[in-house]
Design goal:
The protein is of the alpha+beta class. The chain contains four helices and five strands; from the N terminus they run E-H-E-H-H-E-H-E-E. It has one domain. The protein is 40% helix and 22% strand. Helix 2 runs antiparallel to helix 4.
Length: 111
């Protein structure tokens, strides 16, 4: 099973060295069961940025088709967050932006 997510490049990681937090935006795209997708993703948000990052990330906000914004301070936690949410990104259930750059699934091609 491949949980590879394409990173936008080195500027994403250089930002952490300057002491600034990564700005993360998440939007639930799943129309079938958006509340369940929110439930799956909220664990990774809490683990990466703490319980306070979940403020406003409710079933009502997801059903209203809103984006949720929070910050992650450490590069290691950002990597863990991306690894945890990679299956949802690959399936097209959520959309992620980090520092304004959209994270897209990495498509592996056979030779």
């Amino acid at each position: 099973m491949s949980n590879v997510v394409a990173f936008p490049g080195k500027p994403l990681f250089a930002r952490c060295d300057k002491g600034k937090a990564f700005r993360v935006v998440i939007k639930v795209l799943d129309d079938d069961d958006p509340c369940r997708v929110r439930w799956y993703s909220q664990y990774d948000i809490e683990k990466a940025s703490g319980y306070r990052a979940l403020d406003g990330y409710t079933d009502a906000s997801v059903l209203a088709d809103r984006r949720h914004r929070f910050k992650i301070k450490k590069r290691k936690k950002l990597r863990a967050f991306l690894q945890g949410t990679a299956p949802l990104v690959e399936e097209g259930r959520i959309a992620l932006w980090i520092d304004g750059v959209r994270i897209r699934p990495h498509i592996e091609r056979a030779a």
